[in-house]
Write a structure and sequence with these properties.
This protein is α/β, with parallel strands linked by helices. It has a single domain, classed as Rossmann fold (3-Layer(aba) Sandwich). The chain is built from ten helices and 14 strands. An eight-stranded mixed beta sheet has the order 4-3-2-1-5-6-8-12, sandwiched between helices. A hairpin with a 4-residue loop joins strand 3 and strand 4. Helix 1 packs across helix 5. The longest helix is centred in the first third of the chain and has 23 residues. The structure holds NADP nicotinamide-adenine-dinucleotide phosphate. The site of NADP nicotinamide-adenine-dinucleotide phosphate (NAP) has 25 residues, from helix 1, helix 2, strand 6 and strand 9.
Protein backbone atom coordinates (compact mmCIF):
# COMPACT_ATOMS: atom_id res chain seq x y z
CA UNK A 1 0.00 0.00 0.00
CA UNK A 2 1.01 3.61 -0.46
CA UNK A 3 0.30 5.17 2.93
CA UNK A 4 0.20 8.85 3.89
CA UNK A 5 1.36 9.24 7.52
CA UNK A 6 1.04 12.42 9.59
CA UNK A 7 2.93 12.77 12.88
CA UNK A 8 5.58 10.39 11.55
CA UNK A 9 8.30 11.91 13.74
CA UNK A 10 6.49 11.12 17.00
CA UNK A 11 6.73 8.26 19.46
CA UNK A 12 4.21 6.05 17.63
CA UNK A 13 4.74 7.42 14.11
CA UNK A 14 8.50 6.95 13.96
CA UNK A 15 8.22 3.25 14.92
CA UNK A 16 5.13 2.64 12.82
CA UNK A 17 6.79 3.96 9.67
CA UNK A 18 9.72 1.55 10.12
CA UNK A 19 7.37 -1.35 10.71
CA UNK A 20 5.18 -0.58 7.70
CA UNK A 21 8.20 -0.12 5.45
CA UNK A 22 9.61 -3.45 6.65
CA UNK A 23 6.27 -5.02 5.68
CA UNK A 24 6.74 -3.67 2.13
CA UNK A 25 4.47 -0.61 2.22
CA UNK A 26 5.45 2.70 0.64
CA UNK A 27 5.26 5.64 3.07
CA UNK A 28 4.56 9.28 2.25
CA UNK A 29 5.23 11.47 5.29
CA UNK A 30 3.12 14.53 5.84
CA UNK A 31 5.53 16.88 7.62
CA UNK A 32 5.42 20.45 8.91
CA UNK A 33 8.95 21.39 7.84
CA UNK A 34 10.07 22.16 4.27
CA UNK A 35 10.49 18.86 2.45
CA UNK A 36 13.95 17.33 2.84
CA UNK A 37 13.38 13.94 1.26
CA UNK A 38 11.50 12.49 -1.69
CA UNK A 39 9.02 10.68 0.55
CA UNK A 40 7.90 13.91 2.28
CA UNK A 41 4.94 16.20 1.58
CA UNK A 42 4.60 19.47 3.49
CA UNK A 43 1.53 20.79 5.24
CA UNK A 44 1.05 23.53 7.79
CA UNK A 45 -2.01 22.80 9.88
CA UNK A 46 -1.46 25.93 12.01
CA UNK A 47 -2.00 28.21 9.01
CA UNK A 48 -4.40 25.92 7.16
CA UNK A 49 -2.09 24.94 4.30
CA UNK A 50 -2.32 21.47 2.76
CA UNK A 51 -1.59 20.89 -0.91
CA UNK A 52 -3.87 17.89 -1.24
CA UNK A 53 -2.76 17.12 -4.80
CA UNK A 54 0.63 16.09 -3.41
CA UNK A 55 -1.17 13.38 -1.43
CA UNK A 56 -2.84 11.90 -4.51
CA UNK A 57 -2.46 8.21 -5.20
CA UNK A 58 -2.46 7.00 -1.58
CA UNK A 59 -4.31 3.83 -0.65
CA UNK A 60 -4.55 4.74 3.03
CA UNK A 61 -3.89 7.45 5.60
CA UNK A 62 -2.57 7.07 9.14
CA UNK A 63 -3.25 10.33 10.95
CA UNK A 64 -1.29 10.72 14.20
CA UNK A 65 -0.41 14.43 14.23
CA UNK A 66 -1.30 16.68 17.12
CA UNK A 67 0.30 18.95 19.68
CA UNK A 68 1.65 16.81 22.53
CA UNK A 69 -1.01 16.67 25.25
CA UNK A 70 1.47 16.20 28.10
CA UNK A 71 4.10 18.57 26.69
CA UNK A 72 3.73 21.22 29.41
CA UNK A 73 1.31 23.04 31.71
CA UNK A 74 -2.05 23.64 30.13
CA UNK A 75 -1.91 27.37 29.60
CA UNK A 76 -4.76 28.85 27.55
CA UNK A 77 -2.40 29.07 24.57
CA UNK A 78 -1.29 25.43 24.89
CA UNK A 79 -4.89 24.25 25.24
CA UNK A 80 -5.76 26.15 22.10
CA UNK A 81 -2.87 24.49 20.24
CA UNK A 82 -3.84 21.01 21.49
CA UNK A 83 -7.43 21.47 20.37
CA UNK A 84 -6.80 23.26 17.07
CA UNK A 85 -4.01 20.94 15.96
CA UNK A 86 -6.43 18.02 16.28
CA UNK A 87 -9.87 19.34 15.32
CA UNK A 88 -8.82 21.91 12.69
CA UNK A 89 -5.78 19.89 11.54
CA UNK A 90 -7.90 16.80 10.92
CA UNK A 91 -10.61 18.76 9.12
CA UNK A 92 -8.01 20.47 6.92
CA UNK A 93 -6.60 17.09 5.92
CA UNK A 94 -9.96 15.41 5.34
CA UNK A 95 -11.38 18.35 3.35
CA UNK A 96 -8.29 18.25 1.12
CA UNK A 97 -8.44 14.49 0.62
CA UNK A 98 -12.14 14.77 -0.26
CA UNK A 99 -11.20 16.93 -3.26
CA UNK A 100 -9.00 14.27 -4.84
CA UNK A 101 -10.31 12.35 -7.84
CA UNK A 102 -9.60 9.17 -5.89
CA UNK A 103 -9.78 9.82 -2.14
CA UNK A 104 -7.96 7.23 -0.01
CA UNK A 105 -10.27 4.30 0.80
CA UNK A 106 -8.82 3.78 4.29
CA UNK A 107 -8.33 6.39 7.04
CA UNK A 108 -6.92 5.31 10.41
CA UNK A 109 -6.59 8.01 13.05
CA UNK A 110 -5.43 8.41 16.62
CA UNK A 111 -7.82 9.33 19.39
CA UNK A 112 -7.45 8.76 23.12
CA UNK A 113 -9.21 7.18 26.10
CA UNK A 114 -9.40 10.75 27.40
CA UNK A 115 -12.58 10.72 25.25
CA UNK A 116 -14.38 9.16 28.23
CA UNK A 117 -13.26 11.75 30.81
CA UNK A 118 -12.73 10.97 34.50
CA UNK A 119 -15.12 8.13 35.31
CA UNK A 120 -13.81 6.51 38.51
CA UNK A 121 -14.24 2.72 38.52
CA UNK A 122 -16.76 2.62 35.68
CA UNK A 123 -15.89 0.03 33.02
CA UNK A 124 -15.68 1.87 29.71
CA UNK A 125 -16.29 0.26 26.32
CA UNK A 126 -16.70 1.87 22.94
CA UNK A 127 -20.45 2.07 23.72
CA UNK A 128 -19.85 4.39 26.68
CA UNK A 129 -20.73 8.04 26.10
CA UNK A 130 -18.00 10.70 26.11
CA UNK A 131 -17.09 12.57 29.29
CA UNK A 132 -17.82 16.22 29.94
CA UNK A 133 -14.39 17.71 30.63
CA UNK A 134 -12.09 19.66 28.33
CA UNK A 135 -10.04 16.67 27.17
CA UNK A 136 -13.21 14.74 26.31
CA UNK A 137 -14.29 17.71 24.25
CA UNK A 138 -10.94 17.72 22.42
CA UNK A 139 -11.25 14.01 21.63
CA UNK A 140 -14.89 14.30 20.56
CA UNK A 141 -14.12 17.20 18.21
CA UNK A 142 -11.02 15.35 16.92
CA UNK A 143 -13.09 12.25 16.09
CA UNK A 144 -15.92 14.28 14.52
CA UNK A 145 -13.47 16.16 12.33
CA UNK A 146 -12.85 13.05 10.22
CA UNK A 147 -16.51 12.06 9.74
CA UNK A 148 -16.41 13.30 6.14
CA UNK A 149 -14.19 10.30 5.25
CA UNK A 150 -17.41 8.27 5.25
CA UNK A 151 -19.04 10.60 2.72
CA UNK A 152 -16.55 9.44 0.06
CA UNK A 153 -17.10 5.82 1.13
CA UNK A 154 -13.83 5.58 3.04
CA UNK A 155 -13.36 3.09 5.86
CA UNK A 156 -12.57 5.11 8.99
CA UNK A 157 -10.95 3.61 12.08
CA UNK A 158 -10.35 5.59 15.28
CA UNK A 159 -7.87 4.34 17.89
CA UNK A 160 -8.94 5.48 21.36
CA UNK A 161 -5.47 4.90 22.70
CA UNK A 162 -4.42 4.41 26.31
CA UNK A 163 -1.00 5.07 27.78
CA UNK A 164 1.53 3.67 25.28
CA UNK A 165 4.39 2.03 27.15
CA UNK A 166 7.79 3.05 25.85
CA UNK A 167 10.90 3.78 27.83
CA UNK A 168 12.03 6.61 25.57
CA UNK A 169 8.87 8.66 25.49
CA UNK A 170 5.35 9.33 26.65
CA UNK A 171 4.29 9.13 30.28
CA UNK A 172 6.45 6.10 31.14
CA UNK A 173 9.54 7.81 29.74
CA UNK A 174 8.85 10.80 32.03
CA UNK A 175 8.33 8.64 35.14
CA UNK A 176 11.32 6.36 34.70
CA UNK A 177 14.12 8.61 36.01
CA UNK A 178 12.27 8.95 39.35
CA UNK A 179 11.54 5.24 39.64
CA UNK A 180 15.12 4.34 38.70
CA UNK A 181 16.33 6.57 41.55
CA UNK A 182 13.96 4.78 43.92
CA UNK A 183 11.87 7.91 44.50
CA UNK A 184 8.83 6.81 42.46
CA UNK A 185 5.52 6.13 44.16
CA UNK A 186 1.76 6.15 43.79
CA UNK A 187 0.25 9.35 42.45
CA UNK A 188 -2.41 10.85 44.70
CA UNK A 189 -4.78 8.16 46.00
CA UNK A 190 -3.37 5.52 43.64
CA UNK A 191 -6.95 4.38 43.01
CA UNK A 192 -7.22 6.02 39.55
CA UNK A 193 -7.31 3.61 36.62
CA UNK A 194 -4.66 3.48 33.94
CA UNK A 195 -5.53 2.00 30.56
CA UNK A 196 -2.27 1.09 28.89
CA UNK A 197 -1.01 -0.68 25.77
CA UNK A 198 2.44 -1.93 24.82
CA UNK A 199 4.03 -0.10 21.90
CA UNK A 200 4.28 -3.36 20.01
CA UNK A 201 0.55 -4.03 20.40
CA UNK A 202 -0.25 -0.45 19.43
CA UNK A 203 1.76 -0.75 16.20
CA UNK A 204 0.18 -4.13 15.42
CA UNK A 205 -3.27 -2.56 15.77
CA UNK A 206 -2.50 0.22 13.30
CA UNK A 207 -1.13 -2.35 10.88
CA UNK A 208 -4.22 -4.52 11.26
CA UNK A 209 -6.60 -1.58 10.82
CA UNK A 210 -5.05 -0.78 7.45
CA UNK A 211 -6.08 -4.08 5.93
CA UNK A 212 -8.84 -5.62 8.07
CA UNK A 213 -11.99 -4.67 6.19
CA UNK A 214 -14.11 -5.55 9.23
CA UNK A 215 -12.60 -2.71 11.27
CA UNK A 216 -14.66 0.46 11.14
CA UNK A 217 -15.37 3.17 13.74
CA UNK A 218 -13.88 3.61 17.21
CA UNK A 219 -11.82 1.01 19.08
CA UNK A 220 -10.37 1.16 22.57
CA UNK A 221 -6.68 0.61 21.79
CA UNK A 222 -5.89 -0.61 25.29
CA UNK A 223 -4.68 -3.89 26.76
CA UNK A 224 -7.45 -6.09 28.18
CA UNK A 225 -6.22 -5.67 31.77
CA UNK A 226 -6.23 -2.00 32.84
CA UNK A 227 -4.74 -1.41 36.29
CA UNK A 228 -4.99 1.13 39.07
CA UNK A 229 -2.09 3.50 39.54
CA UNK A 230 -1.22 1.58 42.72
CA UNK A 231 -0.88 -1.70 40.80
CA UNK A 232 1.04 0.01 38.00
CA UNK A 233 3.45 1.56 40.52
CA UNK A 234 4.06 -1.77 42.24
CA UNK A 235 4.64 -3.54 38.92
CA UNK A 236 7.08 -0.86 37.74
CA UNK A 237 9.01 -1.08 41.02
CA UNK A 238 9.22 -4.86 40.67
CA UNK A 239 10.44 -4.74 37.08
CA UNK A 240 13.10 -2.14 38.01
CA UNK A 241 13.90 -3.76 41.38
CA UNK A 242 13.39 -0.42 43.10
CA UNK A 243 11.30 0.61 46.12
CA UNK A 244 8.11 2.58 45.44
CA UNK A 245 7.30 3.68 48.94
CA UNK A 246 7.25 7.45 48.43
CA UNK A 247 3.75 8.54 47.42
CA UNK A 248 3.43 11.73 45.38
CA UNK A 249 0.71 13.88 46.97
CA UNK A 250 -2.05 15.26 44.80
CA UNK A 251 -1.38 18.85 45.90
CA UNK A 252 2.27 18.57 44.78
CA UNK A 253 1.22 17.36 41.33
CA UNK A 254 -1.34 20.16 41.08
CA UNK A 255 1.34 22.67 42.06
CA UNK A 256 3.68 21.35 39.38
CA UNK A 257 1.28 20.61 36.55
CA UNK A 258 -1.89 22.57 37.32
CA UNK A 259 -5.07 21.39 35.58
CA UNK A 260 -3.15 18.75 33.62
CA UNK A 261 -2.39 16.88 36.86
CA UNK A 262 -6.08 16.24 37.52
CA UNK A 263 -6.90 15.24 33.95
CA UNK A 264 -3.91 13.00 33.20
CA UNK A 265 -2.39 11.86 36.50
CA UNK A 266 -4.94 11.95 39.31
CA UNK A 267 -7.91 10.57 37.38
CA UNK A 268 -8.07 7.99 34.63
CA UNK A 269 -10.15 5.54 32.63
CA UNK A 270 -10.89 1.86 33.08
CA UNK A 271 -11.29 1.09 29.39
CA UNK A 272 -11.78 -2.38 27.92
CA UNK A 273 -11.07 -3.27 24.27
CA UNK A 274 -14.55 -4.76 23.75
CA UNK A 275 -14.71 -4.33 19.98
CA UNK A 276 -11.22 -5.80 19.50
CA UNK A 277 -12.19 -8.78 21.65
CA UNK A 278 -15.25 -9.28 19.46
CA UNK A 279 -12.89 -9.41 16.47
CA UNK A 280 -10.87 -12.11 18.25
CA UNK A 281 -7.84 -9.82 18.41
CA UNK A 282 -5.04 -11.23 20.51
CA UNK A 283 -2.70 -8.89 22.34
CA UNK A 284 0.95 -9.79 22.73
CA UNK A 285 1.16 -8.19 26.18
CA UNK A 286 -1.90 -8.50 28.39
CA UNK A 287 -0.64 -8.04 31.97
CA UNK A 288 1.06 -4.85 33.11
CA UNK A 289 4.14 -6.86 34.11
CA UNK A 290 4.49 -8.18 30.54
CA UNK A 291 3.90 -4.71 29.11
CA UNK A 292 6.55 -3.12 31.32
CA UNK A 293 9.08 -5.87 30.65
CA UNK A 294 8.57 -5.37 26.91
CA UNK A 295 8.87 -1.58 27.22
CA UNK A 296 12.01 -1.68 29.34
CA UNK A 297 13.74 -4.08 27.01
CA UNK A 298 15.09 -6.22 29.80
CA UNK A 299 13.78 -9.42 28.34
CA UNK A 300 10.17 -9.45 27.28
CA UNK A 301 8.36 -12.58 28.33
CA UNK A 302 8.95 -14.56 25.15
N1 LIG B 1 1.66 8.05 23.23
C1 LIG B 1 0.56 7.87 23.94
O1 LIG B 1 0.61 7.32 25.08
C2 LIG B 1 -0.78 8.26 23.37
C3 LIG B 1 -1.94 7.98 24.12
C4 LIG B 1 -3.18 8.37 23.61
C5 LIG B 1 -3.28 9.01 22.37
N2 LIG B 1 -2.13 9.26 21.67
C6 LIG B 1 -2.27 9.99 20.40
O2 LIG B 1 -1.63 9.30 19.34
C7 LIG B 1 -1.02 10.24 18.44
C8 LIG B 1 0.44 9.88 18.28
O3 LIG B 1 1.01 9.82 19.58
P1 LIG B 1 2.56 10.04 19.84
O4 LIG B 1 2.81 9.63 21.25
O5 LIG B 1 3.36 9.46 18.74
O6 LIG B 1 2.61 11.64 19.77
P2 LIG B 1 3.92 12.58 19.69
O7 LIG B 1 5.15 11.82 19.99
O8 LIG B 1 3.58 13.79 20.50
O9 LIG B 1 3.95 12.96 18.14
C9 LIG B 1 2.93 13.66 17.52
C10 LIG B 1 3.42 14.22 16.20
O10 LIG B 1 2.45 15.18 15.76
C11 LIG B 1 3.11 16.26 15.10
N3 LIG B 1 2.76 17.51 15.79
C12 LIG B 1 3.29 18.01 16.94
N4 LIG B 1 2.73 19.18 17.23
C13 LIG B 1 1.84 19.44 16.25
C14 LIG B 1 0.96 20.51 15.97
N5 LIG B 1 0.86 21.59 16.78
N6 LIG B 1 0.18 20.43 14.85
C15 LIG B 1 0.26 19.35 14.03
N7 LIG B 1 1.10 18.33 14.22
C16 LIG B 1 1.86 18.37 15.32
C17 LIG B 1 4.61 15.99 15.16
O11 LIG B 1 5.00 15.40 13.92
P3 LIG B 1 5.68 16.29 12.74
O12 LIG B 1 6.66 17.19 13.41
O13 LIG B 1 6.30 15.24 11.87
O14 LIG B 1 4.57 17.03 12.08
C18 LIG B 1 4.74 14.97 16.26
O15 LIG B 1 5.83 14.13 16.07
C19 LIG B 1 -1.20 11.63 19.06
O16 LIG B 1 -2.23 12.31 18.40
C20 LIG B 1 -1.56 11.34 20.51
O17 LIG B 1 -2.40 12.31 21.09
C21 LIG B 1 -0.90 8.90 22.15
Amino acid sequence: MRILVSGSSGLIGSRLVGRLQAAGHEIVRLVRHPTQARDEVTWDPASGRFDHQRAAGCDAVVHLAGENIAGGRWTDERKRRIHRSRADGTRLMVDGLAKLDASPPVFVAASAVGYYGARGDEVLTEDSPPGDDWLSEVCTDWERASEAVESWGGRRVLMRTGLVLDQEGGALGKMLPFFRLGVGGVLGSGEQWMSWISLDDQLALYERALTDERMRGAYNATAPEPVTNRTFTKALGEVLHRPTILPVPAFGLRLLYGEMADALLLTGQRALPKRLSELGHSFRHTSIGEGLHAALGDGSID
